Predict the 3D structure of the following.
Amino acid sequence: MTLNTAATKYENLYAEDFQEKLQEKTGAIVLDVRTPEEFESGRIPQSINMNIMDPMFLNQVSALDKARPYFVYCRSGARSGQACAMMSNMGFEVYNLAGGIMRWSGEMV
């Protein structure tokens, strides 16, 4: 199930749908936008960390490959929603984990 409003240019997906879509999308990248400390406390496998609170966040994002889909998450979904809005405005295909990692039921490392 997707949670969208007309204004969003990205998809908010509940954990189960996030997992399914992630498996469907070839070359997908999982992006964790929490702090490095939060990232180290537990993350979705294969995810890369880019702290949205870092002043260099937009510079880091602009260096990413726009041809690949990005699955973005944080703790509760708020920061990742901000990141998805920024990234979609930059031309990225992005999916937000609604409820964040707190709602994630899949594998963690």
